[in-house]
Amino acid sequence: MAERGFYHLTRTPLETALPKLLGRVLAQNARAVVRIGVPERLEPLSTALWLSPDPDWLPHGHAGTGNADLQPIWLTTGTDNPNGAAHLFLIDGADGSTEGYARVFDLFDGGDEAAVAAARARWAAAKAAGDTLTYWQQTDRGWEKKAG
After folding, report:
1. Phi and psi angles of residue 67, each rounded to the nearest 5 degrees, phi first
2. Backbone angles phi, psi at 37, to 5 degrees
3. d(CA 6, CA 138)
4. Do 5 and 134 contact (CB within 8 A), yes or no?
5. Which of 17, 63, 85, 103 would bridge with 33, disulfide CB 3.0–4.6 Å?
6. pLDDT value of residue 90
7. Hey, which bits of 1-148 come out as E strands?
8. Could you tell me which residues are beta bridge partners of residue 103?
9. Pick from 41, 51, 54: which is nearest to 62 by CA?
10. In the chain, what are the domains?
11. CB-based contact 65:59 (threshold 8 Å)
């Protein structure tokens, strides 16, 4: 079973929070897949990762750029894991199988009531599936563990 953390964005937008979390994965010499729930967000998110000031280098790719096996971060709207990642990031309500991943990061916008309700439903489903769950919320000091 995957260790699944729910990350409640309350202070910064996804484009600011995600790069920092991905940077931590890369610092461990690990790979990540970012599963995007809204296909129209793939290219803007890719651009945001290239332009991120913190960290300032997030090498990544997606189906449009190719070479998946060489990419430490892979952006997708599907359930593929072509770079052999152990870390899965779910954004924009993306869901689906988490099998094969050691850690899952489920990020959701705390200012969007529908996103919060959908995250609660994903929490219940993951709990029923036997995943190890944690809940993190942004504070003025960074991420604070609230449950799990």
Report:
1. 55, 45
2. -80, -15
3. 11
4. yes
5. 85
6. 97
7. 3-9, 32-36, 61-62, 73-76, 87-91, 103-109, 132-139, 142-147
8. 3, 87
9. 41
10. 3-147 (3.40.50.10110)
11. no
